[in-house]
């Protein structure tokens, strides 16, 4: 019988202590080398990440979320390939506070950027540093932080020009060698005002929210806004195609917007038209394509999630937390409530408000209800922004229904309470309804306790426009009535 290796005669040579030490040393080196190789292999599994930001885009104004007229085929494709969040919310419905919350993982009262055109307090770190500490190269193109703020965030490179994003991005990476995992932030200023003069949509065919006043000027401005939305979508397709060619398949792509559009009851308001935002995330092999989730998430959760999936350290004192388990499809629940704040924007908007929202109900507290709510749109009334307001006032002078819309815009009660399941457009304030008093009281207490925990001083940064003084805009409704 042919002997096998187990029965084959062999000679045994005993090892001395020096020989044994050499063997152990070699084995130890091999073990360390194996650990190093495994570590390097694991490090290479860190995903590249693309964060694409739109500016002033209402969540209902893209086809992914049900828009009938405006076309956004790139977002539809991204949704088909990734996960779409139906309940994503910003921390604050104005540019600077929203972006500061995104980049710090802290709500406005805690990071210090409460009013528009403000930045976080100097002692507050941006979470870009956590990615860089973990080996990432981090880049910013366009409007990522608020105007002039990209240099404060610690990006390895930032290009602040807000037009020509595709040319700027491709021009940079065509001439620059990039090693290791990358995180690329891209911020398109569209559809922020002023809206383009182009009309890719017929003003007669655009759709309007039911609480808008239907005028020729409103429809023309809506068509211009839609044109910018589709323009943003188209250039994003160019940018993502380029980056797909540059990066490998292990790339997480996230799209969102900093808040709603600069329309009445949108930006600078805590209605869903102002605070609810599109959020779509694609990650091949990790996220099931074409999925939707009802999980409620906040903009302060985005960077902690990116830190989590990249294996980067997450600071312990953040307001935001990772929703990576939602991305993996392990849960459809995340936050029980969403808190949002708005404090103001210079002299144009001095109307601070706070809100708490759960899956069905929303409570809004207007901190100075004895003042007019107002902002850039109705004060400046510039072409391509708020010029349609003149037509609203003219209509309100003749039509009681239009007058009620204008009145509701300028004058708000101290407390608003909405049943979002039955009133998604937040048109029927139930704050004084007897049946809802227990819920109003409960949610008001939750909101008050949260503000205390946040250190929210409910500070007024500018002088409000108290009534019965004049509104800071054009002619009053009574003056227009007298003209007819």
The percentage helix is: 25-40%
Computed Rg: 27 Å
Structural class: alpha/beta
**Order of the strands making up the biggest sheet:** 4-3-5-1-6-7-2-8
Distance between the termini: 118 Å
Q: How many beta-strand elements?
A: 12
Share in β-strands: 5-15%
Number of domains: 2
CATH superfamily of the largest domain: Alkaline Phosphatase, subunit A
Q: Tell me, briefly, the overall form.
A: globular
Top CATH class of the largest domain: Alpha Beta
GO molecular function, one term: hydrolase activity
Organism: Echinicola soli
Protein name: Sulfatase
Pfam family, one: Sulfatase
Notes on the structure:
- By secondary structure, the chain is an alpha/beta fold.
- The protein has two domains: 45-332, Alkaline Phosphatase, subunit A; 353-483, Arylsulfatase, C-terminal domain (2-Layer Sandwich), CATH 3.30.1120.
- It contains 15 helices and twelve strands.
- The protein has helices at 17-43, 73-81, 95-104, 108-111, 128-133, 165-174, 216-246, 272-275, 302-309, 324-327, 376-380, 389-396, 400-410, 437-454, 477-483; strands spanning 48-54, 83-89, 137-142, 157-159, 182-187, 251-257, 276-282, 291-298, 338-342, 353-357, 361-366, 415-419.
- The strands form two sheets. An eight-stranded mixed β-sheet has the order 4-3-5-1-6-7-2-8.
- Helix 6 (165-174) packs parallel to helix 7 (216-246) and helix 12 (389-396) packs across helix 13.
- The chain starts with 16 loop residues before the first helix and ends with a helix.
- Mean pLDDT is 91; it is low at 1-15 and 29-43.
């Amino acid at each position: 019988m042919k002997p096998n290796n187990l029965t084959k005669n062999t000679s045994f040579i005993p090892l001395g202590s020096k020989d044994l030490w050499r063997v152990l040393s070699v084995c130890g080196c091999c073990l360390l080398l194996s650990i190093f190789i495994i570590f390097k292999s694991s490090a290479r599994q860190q995903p590249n990440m693309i964060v694409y930001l739109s500016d002033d885009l209402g969540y209902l104004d893209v086809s992914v979320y049900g828009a009938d007229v405006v076309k956004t085929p790139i977002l539809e494709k991204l949704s088909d390939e990734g996960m779409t969040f139906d309940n994503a919310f910003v921390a604050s419905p104005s540019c600077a506070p929203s972006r500061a919350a995104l980049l710090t993982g802290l709500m406005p009262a805690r990071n210090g950027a409460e009013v528009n055109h403000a930045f976080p307090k100097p002692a507050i770190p941006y979470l870009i540093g956590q990615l860089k500490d973990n080996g990432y190269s981090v880049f910013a193109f366009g409007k990522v932080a608020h105007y002039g703020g990209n240099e404060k965030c610690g990006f390895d490179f930032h290009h602040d020009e807000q037009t020509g994003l595709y040319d700027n991005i491709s021009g940079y990476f065509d001439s620059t060698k990039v090693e290791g995992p990358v995180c690329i932030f891209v911020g398109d200023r569209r559809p922020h005002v002023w809206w383009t003069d182009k009309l890719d949509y017929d003003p007669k065919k655009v759709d309007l929210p039911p609480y808008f006043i239907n005028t020729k000027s409103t429809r023309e401005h809506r068509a211009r806004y839609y044109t910018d939305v589709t323009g943003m979508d188209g250039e994003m397709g160019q940018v993502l195609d380029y980056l797909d060619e540059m990066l490998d398949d292990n790339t997480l792509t996230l799209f969102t917007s900093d808040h709603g559009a600069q329309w009445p009851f949108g930006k600078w308001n805590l209605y869903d038209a102002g605070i609810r935002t599109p959020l779509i995330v694609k990650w091949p092999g990790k996220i099931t394509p074409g999925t939707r989730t009802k999980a409620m998430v906040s903009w302060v959760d985005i960077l902690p999630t990116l830190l989590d999936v990249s294996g980067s350290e997450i600071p312990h004192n953040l307001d935001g937390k990772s929703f990576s388990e939602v991305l993996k499809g392990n849960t459809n629940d995340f936050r029980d409530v969403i808190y949002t704040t708005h404090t103001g924007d210079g002299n144009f908007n001095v109307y601070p408000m706070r809100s708490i929202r759960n899956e069905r109900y929303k409570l809004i507290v207007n901190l100075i209800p004895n003042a007019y709510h107002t902002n850039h749109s109705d004060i400046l009334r510039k072409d391509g922004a708020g010029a349609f307001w003149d037509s609203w006032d003219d209509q309100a002078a003749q039509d009681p229904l239009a007058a009620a819309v204008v009145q509701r815009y300028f004058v708000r009660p101290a407390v608003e309470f909405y049943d979002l399941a039955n009133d998604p457009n937040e048109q029927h304030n139930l704050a004084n309804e007897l049946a809802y008093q227990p819920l109003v009281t409960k949610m008001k207490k939750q909101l008050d306790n949260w503000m205390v925990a946040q250190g929210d001083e409910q500070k007024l940064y500018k002088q409000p426009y108290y009534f019965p003084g004049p509104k800071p805009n054009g002619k009053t409704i009574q003056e227009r009535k007298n003209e007819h």
